[in-house]
Amino acid sequence: RHYLSDMPIRDATRLLIMLNQSRMWQIEQNKHLGELCGSHVGQREQLAQQRDRNRQIQYRNVPAQIVESLQQGKPFEPHLQPETTVLSCSLADFSTIASFCNPEEVMKMLSELNSRFYRLIKIHKLHLVHSLADSWLIVGWAPDRSRTCMTSSVLDLALGMAAEARQIVVRHFGLPLRLRVGVAMGPVTAAIIGEKL
Questions:
Q1: Over the Cα atoms of the chain, what is R_g?
Q2: What's the CATH number of domain 64-190, 3.30.70.1230, 3.30.420.10, 3.90.1720.10, 3.40.50.2300?
Q3: Most exposed residue of 89, 132, 139, 192, measured as fewest CB within 10 angstroms of its CB?
Q4: Which residues contact 86 (CB under 8 A, 6 or more apart)?
Q5: Which residues form the Guanylate cyclase domain (predicted)?
Q6: In this predicted structure, what is the pLDDT of residue 1?
């Protein structure tokens, strides 16, 4: 057996062996660094996809002109919409349902109901302004649609939402959900309250 320490310090063979060992170590380090960089590229793409998805969720219920203004960093000035139809609805028996059903059942019921309502809102091309647990606020306004058309869309949505709510039966009571709905027409001021959406 030969050991590196047995060779004279200034021996050319010793220097070649040391250079070769150094080169092999650098190759291993470069390979490892390449793997790390490759995983970071994948993570960067995943992060970009997640950021885009979050933006879509954040701006899902916001009219395009407001989204554009926010993305450009401009403040959105209050804007009067003279002809608007507003729909407000909530579950009639939500407090009773929430007190008798377990949280998982309540969340599953609300999730299913929200999915159905979002689909209807998208079909009717209306804007969900606010949704919180068992209540929803939807606005119909657009400069390119007539007031009659917009009101008709909101009323159709109200009927559709009531029908969709009746499709979901609360197992604890064996009864379908009931929806309270109110519709109002008139001028509305669109604004962003606070500094962030």
A1: 31
A2: 3.30.70.1230
A3: 132
A4: 137, 138, 139, 140, 154, 183, 184, 185, 188
A5: 85-197
A6: 67
